[in-house]
């Protein structure tokens, strides 16, 4: 059992020390002796007389386990003898252990269960077999072999206990020898064999113990001694720290360089014993070393009892056990002397660099900017935390400049005052951070005061000397720069006043040679200022004035002065009168002059303008920028009753009557403040209290710089014209019999209601029943009375926002916004009920009924024309069904809609099929009786529908978008026809062409017409373009621009159907119009209707007052023509003179005319 224990100890030492010894031999030897221990245990358990160990115990079984154990032991000795025992990587122990255990398991399997596979080693009664003795002798030989090898290795250097191993091999050989001699397991040879075996195992254990345990501990003790000696000899400080900066150990006998006593450092962190900045640098070095393995070169500064010391750190990571936080070795070397030398060199280099750069910096900046840019340079010189700088005027205690960087101390004011008073350097008190104030003196007075400060080290003599030199340099450069800038500014001021002045300046010598001239004189003479130098003054004087100029200059003495005038010649030969004032100084003539030609011309222009304003028939008022009147001409007094003296300095609001809308004034000032002219009307009050309508054009007057200095107003009393316009408005927008709105006004007001998204609207067409019979039988007077009574009764049924108009004859239209079908039906019944009572006449009563047609927006139509058509259709259906009732429009009533669609489809192909033609209706000149011109009229003769009325297909063309190509075709056809008539020898004719709203809105209309005329070789006055009032007023500003473009191109413009629209004088004045065409509706009853006569007369008079011509349409009787000729109408058009003619018929008509107007 003892040998088993020793074998187990061998295994334990070999296994436990493998990680530190890192020897494959030790690991293998330990595992083999584990096998030996297990096999010896099997040998012990298998002795004769022991309990059965799995199988029956016996001598041979025990000997088999014995031989296996001896084989492993001998193998271990051979391994120890022949192995090199070198240290390497930690061997892989577990594969070795598993291999030995598997081998032991195999031996047990064979010995226990298959002993027949093994040779016989013991025969009961005979003893050991020959095989057993031979095997033992073989083991002895192997042991002696191992001993021989070990004996030879004793003579060479080695690192293992070869002598112990040699003893183990020899004793084990002796043990094996005794095992060959016994005959019984209990005799003395067997006992001696076991004793020698145990001794051999002991020597083997001793060899492993010395090699793996005793020698490493001796080496460790030696290393510790050497390390202590090395650390004691180090001149630097060595610390062990963790990554958080905590001291783990202090290895230094020197305590002078420690921030705290060595015994107090361990366990504390660098933040506790170092300044924050140094602690942060140290922590960063620890972090880098922990990450990279080492860090070096970082410097820290520590305030120690003997002053500020500088240390350079070298940090290395000390490898520890895996998974544990690394330990960092910090070597701290005192580099104070080196740091101070480097700092001195750096400060000197900084000072030299700053002093060398200051002149260049001063050259590019003013005094204040130069000193402000110098602050960071001063701060950088000594690594100061802040810098303050003051500049004083000579003899003054108040600073002229006070510049400072951030973080300047609050008591800098007191320190600066003390330094300025004592004129010497001031140090801070010990309780404050280091601070210096250095005055720069000039003639014993403080002119510049430089203050610096920092939070740590005090300033030394080197800092003081450098700052003093820098302060004096700053003052010298600042003073020099200030003087240079002052001189440069004075020179620039002189040059500016000399060259920028609009007056003329020149310097010439006694011989009259120009030495210097300013830009104004050079411009006058047409040369550059430099080119005039050396020119003779007389060369640029008018020949007639040279003698007088020479005489004046000859009379000048040494310091004489003179004033004279002569004419200077410009390069274009023009002469400019110049008034000169000259003075002689040091043989040079200094002259200042002024070109008075422009001033004299301006004076003459002003006199002319003043005369024109005084004699103007229109009032002219000039105000200043605040609205105070500065000038008013006599026409203003005639218009308002106020003289110029009465209104001078007053605001034009003294004329306000209170009736002009406030929005008018807001619009006026908005335009004027935007710098734009404004045109509009005021209702003002004269001095006598009477009111008048004033049309004014006001615009700002600007200086050359663009500043508004005055407002100029042109004013005209348009009361009479306004009354005429309002009369025309009344005549053209209201039915003169009933006072109701006429169709034009009805259409205007209806448009506001018929918009997308608006509420439903109902339109009622009311037509009196049998009115024509009453008119024919009882006369027009009774008919007129009946119409007025009908209008009165219908008007009485109107509610708010409802609209009633007389459409034509006995037809009335009503517009009911927001009215449902039921409400509209109820309203229709009320209207019929209102008409039921008899109308009393002189001797009888008249009962009349009415037929009402109702159409609803938007379902029956989207436009007023469509609603009127639907309502009229429904009204006719009522008449067909018996009259005196009402009906809503039904789409079945509108059979003509199908015709309209078919016509639209045919119209799209009319041009291609050549179904459209142009006819020409002649126009007569009422003054001479000859041909005035012609109007081009479009006709359509459809192959399917026959002749189609323009009143039917023109609206279809407009709604289908065909009006533009058709209109262009008409215009092109007319131009080509005019060119053909010219080629046929006809006299030059002017033809009027109607423009649709869409065609007039084309962006390049003027260019299109010009191109057509140019291609045909015709003049622009050969074409007269007609448009209706509605087209012109749809977008007045755009219409004005288009008309101006056409008029500037030379084409005549006419307003067609004048009087049926807005008929505003204001727009006629803005539009470039040549002709007004009186609508045929005012001509039809001209011989019998006073209203039509009044309208026609008013239109002719208004046109004459605006310088326009007039032409009446639809003239069919001689009475109509005579009436128009008597009123001054220029031309007529109608069946009385001629019907529309084809091109060839029109040419024949022209040839028969006596003359062309």
From TrEMBL:
<dbReference type="Pfam" id="PF17159">
    <property type="entry name" value="MASE3"/>
</dbReference>
<dbReference type="InterPro" id="IPR052155">
    <property type="entry name" value="Biofilm_reg_signaling"/>
</dbReference>
<feature type="transmembrane region" description="Helical">
    <location>
        <begin position="21"/>
        <end position="43"/>
    </location>
</feature>
<dbReference type="Pfam" id="PF00563">
    <property type="entry name" value="EAL"/>
</dbReference>
<feature type="domain" description="GGDEF">
    <location>
        <begin position="759"/>
        <end position="891"/>
    </location>
</feature>
<dbReference type="InterPro" id="IPR043128">
    <property type="entry name" value="Rev_trsase/Diguanyl_cyclase"/>
</dbReference>
<dbReference type="Pfam" id="PF00990">
    <property type="entry name" value="GGDEF"/>
</dbReference>
<dbReference type="InterPro" id="IPR029787">
    <property type="entry name" value="Nucleotide_cyclase"/>
</dbReference>
<dbReference type="Pfam" id="PF00989">
    <property type="entry name" value="PAS"/>
</dbReference>
<feature type="transmembrane region" description="Helical">
    <location>
        <begin position="63"/>
        <end position="82"/>
    </location>
</feature>
<dbReference type="InterPro" id="IPR000700">
    <property type="entry name" value="PAS-assoc_C"/>
</dbReference>
<feature type="transmembrane region" description="Helical">
    <location>
        <begin position="163"/>
        <end position="182"/>
    </location>
</feature>
<feature type="domain" description="PAS">
    <location>
        <begin position="490"/>
        <end position="560"/>
    </location>
</feature>
<dbReference type="Pfam" id="PF08448">
    <property type="entry name" value="PAS_4"/>
</dbReference>
<dbReference type="InterPro" id="IPR001610">
    <property type="entry name" value="PAC"/>
</dbReference>
<dbReference type="InterPro" id="IPR001633">
    <property type="entry name" value="EAL_dom"/>
</dbReference>
<feature type="domain" description="PAS">
    <location>
        <begin position="223"/>
        <end position="293"/>
    </location>
</feature>
<dbReference type="InterPro" id="IPR000014">
    <property type="entry name" value="PAS"/>
</dbReference>
<protein>
    <submittedName>
        <fullName>EAL domain-containing protein</fullName>
    </submittedName>
</protein>
<keyword id="KW-0472">Membrane</keyword>
<dbReference type="InterPro" id="IPR013656">
    <property type="entry name" value="PAS_4"/>
</dbReference>
<dbReference type="InterPro" id="IPR035919">
    <property type="entry name" value="EAL_sf"/>
</dbReference>
<keyword id="KW-1133">Transmembrane helix</keyword>
<feature type="domain" description="PAS">
    <location>
        <begin position="605"/>
        <end position="651"/>
    </location>
</feature>
<dbReference type="InterPro" id="IPR033425">
    <property type="entry name" value="MASE3"/>
</dbReference>
<dbReference type="InterPro" id="IPR000160">
    <property type="entry name" value="GGDEF_dom"/>
</dbReference>
<feature type="transmembrane region" description="Helical">
    <location>
        <begin position="134"/>
        <end position="151"/>
    </location>
</feature>
<dbReference type="GO" id="GO:0006355">
    <property type="term" value="P:regulation of DNA-templated transcription"/>
</dbReference>
<feature type="domain" description="EAL">
    <location>
        <begin position="900"/>
        <end position="1154"/>
    </location>
</feature>
<feature type="transmembrane region" description="Helical">
    <location>
        <begin position="94"/>
        <end position="114"/>
    </location>
</feature>
<keyword id="KW-0812">Transmembrane</keyword>
<feature type="domain" description="PAC">
    <location>
        <begin position="676"/>
        <end position="730"/>
    </location>
</feature>
<dbReference type="InterPro" id="IPR035965">
    <property type="entry name" value="PAS-like_dom_sf"/>
</dbReference>
<dbReference type="InterPro" id="IPR013767">
    <property type="entry name" value="PAS_fold"/>
</dbReference>
